[in-house]
Amino acid sequence: MLFIPSTTTSVSSLVAGDVHVANASGGGVASAVVAGADLVIAGCYLNSLPYELIVHETIKSAEDLKGKTIGISRIGSASDVAARALIRGLGLEPEGQVLIMQVGGPAERAAAFRTGRIAGFPSPPGIIHITKGMPFRVLISTADFPKKFDFPFICATTTRSYLARQRETVKKVLMAHIEATHFFKSRKEESKRIIAKYSRITNEAYLEAAYAANAKLYDQVPLVTRPGVEVQIKTALARKPGAQLRFEDMVDESIVRELDKSGFIDKVYKSS
């Protein structure tokens, strides 16, 4: 197993054939498929985007944020989608009224924030605990939105050609992911240790906040949020005029539905 910290890197690794199955967000997959990539989402374990917009404590309103720079990992990543949604949630226009800069993963964003290179950054709950005392405030959160922010956040992704050739292998990966989701939701301390190992972040406050925010959001049956995907398709098509993309072009839930119908998922969750 290889830890890949961003969707854009996962997508490029899949396209290059360096990996056969990887977790990626729907936004990154939609952009890649519109550009001609042979990618397909086989299932999504997290269909929401639990993000906060962390800003310096001197920024107290949307007006204060105008002209400032927000740091993300990469264009097209989940942090990019989150940043744009959070900025729009404040009634502002991303890139027009608030600048967006590619900085890197959560730890790199926190470091850039601490040094003043950026005025804020979108963050999964808990990351702010590694900024080592930098004065901050949460300006807005996706939890503040009037309705749930549907977003295909953590999705098992492969290529259509690999799915056709190695369907049983992809099925085994999905089965392992379903078992891992159950493990994550039911075995807190072990899960926190695994997060620390692969993220290389050992701050206890971060680990606790990250676990608390995410454990309740992981889906037992990893079907894909259609409304969330449709939004990402619309965004991807806006960047490539003339292109066409449908939900069915980038999602194949047949294995998940097969596993659900067979009773496998119920058996996993009844085992505890």
Architecture overview:
The protein has 272 residues and is an alpha+beta fold. It folds into two domains: 7-48 and 149-270, D-Maltodextrin-Binding Protein, domain 2 (3-Layer(aba) Sandwich), CATH 3.40.190.10; 52-144, Periplasmic binding protein-like II (D-Maltodextrin-Binding Protein, domain 2, 3-Layer(aba) Sandwich). Helix content is 47%, strand content 17%. It has 13 helices and eight strands. Helix 2 (26-34) packs across helix 10 (226-238) and helix 7 (167-186) packs parallel to helix 13 (264-270). The chain starts with 6 loop residues before the first helix and ends with a helix. The mean pLDDT is 91.
Secondary structure layout plus pairing:
Elements lengths: L6 H10 L5 E3 L1 H9 L4 E10 L3 E5 L5 H4 L3 E4 L5 H12 L9 E4 L3 H10 L4 E4 L12 E6 L8 E10 H6 L1 H20 L1 H12 L4 H12 L10 H13 L8 H4 L3 H9 L1 H7 L2
Helix pairs in contact: 2-10, 7-13
Oligomer: single chain
Query: What is the top-level CATH class of the largest domain?
Result: Alpha Beta
Note poorly predicted spans.
none
Counting structural domains, the number is 2
Question: How many strand elements?
Answer: 8
Taking all Cα atoms into account, the compactness measure Rg is 19 Å
Largest sheet: 3 strands, antiparallel
- The total of helices stands at 13
Mean pLDDT: 91
CATH superfamily of the largest domain: Periplasmic binding protein-like II
Global structural class: alpha+beta
Strand content: 15-25%
User: Any guess at the CATH architecture of the largest domain?
Assistant: 3-Layer(aba) Sandwich
How are helices and strands ordered from N to C?
Answer: HEHEEHEHEHEEEHHHHHHHH
- Looking across the biggest beta sheet, what order are the strands in? 1-8-2
Coarse morphology: globular
Share of helical residues = 40-55%
Which fold name corresponds to the CATH topology of the largest domain?
Answer: D-Maltodextrin-Binding Protein, domain 2
Distance between the termini: 25 Å
